[in-house]
Amino acid sequence: RDQVFRNENMKEFLVKLLLFFATFTLIDVVLGNTLLFCAEHAKGGDTARQNFIINETTDNILVFGSSRALRHYNAQMISDSLSTECHNCGYSGMGIIFNYGQILLVKKRYNPNVIIYDITPDCDLLPGDKQMYLRWLKPYYCSEVKEIFENVDKMQKYKMMSRLYRCNSLFMHFIPDYLFPVKSMGVRGFRPLDGEMDTMKIVKKEVKRNKEEITFDSLKISYFNKLASAPPKKTTIVFVVSPTWYGMDTMKIVPIRKICLQRNIPLVDFSNNPKYVNNNVYFKDGEHLNARGADEFTKDLIHLLKKQKVIQW
Asked: Residue 273 and residue 243: Cα distance in Å, rounded?
């Protein structure tokens, strides 16, 4: 009798366990696919902007990088000056791990003629939380970017089996961008900053930065090496360090200098350009140019690229 009782309890437990996993799977599939549908059909905001970059843009020149790429490169000015189409693909807080994934996804459709990559050491070269760079790649997870996920976290291949996991950090973007879209893609992806800077905050930050010890993230550098050694076919890579108000310790970009020397890739460094360093009229804050500064920098960059025949049409 006891054995029968135990068997009945075991059967009941297994049934409950199966119901739990079935319910969990159903919720995961239904909610996950609903959120991914919202993402895929977003009509505005960052979600629509990412969809356009990955699925639609066919411009000859693409600009990649963090917020400094997003805020510093006037893509319309580049298009007009070089008589070709340019799109700004920069995204705030995102470094080479995310951007290399973006480039691979774009490459599925076509090869741009020129990739301009803006270097931001904090995002692109220095150690930090690498998981955050996957969040905007999750909805586009496929064989092209699978290796990136696994290099960041070996468990990602299992986590990505969940549809909800692909959306868990972005659902607050997906739903509003689908239901209540704000048209904020910018002009050719470029989003300038208006206003003036508070120099008191910048002075404090400068003192703190000078005390930092410089170490580099080997995984991030490996993706720069991949981009430099095997760029998309017939694509010219140009690395650029755009201006900062307080200048930059050039030791922070040593790995990029080495890669450029080894691969014969142009590196344009405006980080300590006297025209911009400590010039308040061009900056919104210590890291970012304002709209006026972005236009001036874009003009200077175009002139330099033409003069050095880095870009030829």
From this structure: 7
Distant-in-sequence, close-in-space partners of 313: CB < 8 Å, separation ≥ 6: 82, 83, 84
CA 278 to chain centre: 27
Instruction: List, in sequence order, every residue forming a beta bridge with 185; answer none if it has no partner.
Output: none
User: Beta strand pairing status for 86-88 and 236-241?
Assistant: unpaired
Question: Model confidence over 185-239: pLDDT tens digits?
Answer: 678 999 999 988 877 766 655 545 555 678 899 999 999 999 998 777 788 999 9
Contact criterion met (CB below 8 Å) for 79 and 188: yes
3, 56, 151, 216 from 64: Cα distances, Å: 67, 16, 21, 20
- Rounded to whole angstroms, the Cα distance separating 266 from 249 reads 20
Instruction: Identify the bridge partners of residue 61 per DSSP, sorted by sequence position.
Output: 86, 114
Beta strands (DSSP E) in the chain are 61-64, 86-88, 114-118, 236-241, 267-269
Overall average pLDDT of the 32-45 stretch: 90
pLDDT at 257 over 90: yes
The two structure tokens encoding residue 259: 């890669």
Helix (H, G, I), strand (E, B) or coil at 237: strand
- Cβ partners under 8 Å of residue 156, min gap 6: 134, 149, 150
116 beta partners: 63, 238
Place of tokens 């996957």: 134
State how far the Cα of 255 lies from the Cα of 156, in Å rounded to an integer: 28
Alpha-carbon distance 29 to 23, whole Å?
Answer: 10
CB atoms within 10 A of CB 76: 18
Q: Which residues contact 125 (CB under 8 A, 6 or more apart)?
A: 119, 216, 217, 220, 221, 252, 253, 255, 256
- DSSP letter for 241, please: E
Which uninterrupted H or E stretch holds 81? helix 75-82
User: What is the helix (H) or strand (E) element at residue 99, kind and residue range?
Assistant: helix 96-107
